[in-house]
């Protein structure tokens, strides 16, 4: 069922060569937005589009507060989440322009108590570009058993945790792995340099930019005009969080404020920022990883960033060739801001967004029998699928999820029984052999290759024991159960895990690799999406 848009902006501003979108295009955009609303009274989204320095489309649909039936509007303040990192980086740039810090400064010039045993420089530019090797504090809390969004955690809590870390995931400058800790540390450096809280310094920045409804909010209980976040569990429910970390996210803002900022960027004009700072803020840092700059990702002629905190989602995407920017913000878990952004781009240009991987099979090939597809598959990064038969039903086992039943669709294509949109296409590569490509409408496809794994002679019980990490004060107890299944105990929690490959198993979102001396396992090295080589040493207990 579709519903009428609740609010539409009509006073469009046209500057330079910007043209008003035609009625046909506008109807397509309105239809796209309307389709995001599941019901008449539902959370929703706000969308703005800028081209050639002018706003050409602005729309609001859905509700900011379902109980009070408050519609989303120009006054509504969304959580911009990680899309707000660009403004933390901009605050750093203003200090660079004033000569108070340099990109090449070692962070320990300002934070002398951090990482005393690391000899290599950890530079400010490494924080900005996520090349520092500093581990993501949220995933560290997760290892401690802390559900971060349920706790009233602050930037100081993050600083305290990071001060206990003695090792990095990798040598600074050698790799790029996204870590929120980088931007949390930037806020602490700003505090040390300016003798102001990051909140106060960034508020001055936004006021100077004329973005008076925007600010990093360190108190989740007191945010004026806040849009409420919702998930859906049989009915709409509040998706609350208690954490008060800022700088890596927690930027509350209105769509008009973000559109004003995007107009400044496209026009390259600001009453406050110099032309040099404006230009730098939209560019990679020369000589570093050039896929990520000042809170921006760069790829295929566009700069962009996605943000997600609980039910809040936000995406901005700037397309250089078209001089086009699309901003999407939502307060509902079931609306994917990045997907809506891509759909807007396609409507406006007639083209698929730059270089996305397919989200459904492009062709149907010859039938692949169940017998031939059974087995374990792995991505280059070490993520696993395993297809097994259980009571005449094909099941997919994944490293960090519950098994799901799979059925044949047509040719080489299978899909999940309870979610047919999740498709798997099996193909045979002449060199690599059997492969599977997984597809889903809201994220890019990815491919895994079937592994020839030998278990003969493997000692399953050698992993049994207790392992300890002193940086986190966390113990893991590992015990073999049966049939490649282990029980991992952490504190009061127990996890049943499957080992997919000898000496490698997944524990929650962490991939544990076994290190051993001769035949005795001596350590576990845990790798996750944002952390590497978190060391757990076997104890004598």
Can you tell me about this structure?
By secondary structure, the protein is α+β, with helices and mostly antiparallel strands. The protein contains 11 helices and 30 strands. An 8-stranded antiparallel beta barrel has the order 15-16-17-18-19-20-21-22. The termini are far apart.
Topology:
Blueprint: E1 7-8, H1 23-35, E2 45-51, E3 54-61, E4 63-65, E5 70-71, E6 78-79, H2 85-97, H3 124-128, H4 137-144, H5 155-163, H6 180-194, H7 198-209, E7 215-216, E8 230-232, E9 236-238, E10 251-253, H8 255-267, H9 275-281, E11 297-299, E12 302-309, E13 312-319, E14 324-330, H10 337-349, H11 370-373, E15 375-378, E16 384-390, E17 393-398, E18 401-410, E19 413-416, E20 423-429, E21 433-440, E22 443-450, E23 465-469, E24 474-482, E25 485-490, E26 493-501, E27 504-507, E28 510-517, E29 520-527, E30 534-538
Helix pairs in contact: 1-10, 2-6, 5-6
Key descriptive features of the protein:
single chain; 541 residues; alpha+beta; 8-stranded antiparallel β-barrel; 8-stranded antiparallel barrel; 11 helices; 21% helix; globular; disordered N terminus
Q: For the record, give the distance between the C-alpha atoms at the N and C termini, rounded to a whole number.
A: 61 Å
The largest β sheet comes out as: 8 strands, antiparallel, barrel
Q: What is the helical fraction, as a range of percent?
A: 10-25%
**Rg computed from alpha carbons, rounded to a whole number of angstroms:** 25 Å
Question: Could you give the count of β-strands?
Answer: 30
Short recap of the structure:
This protein is an alpha+beta fold and 541 residues long.
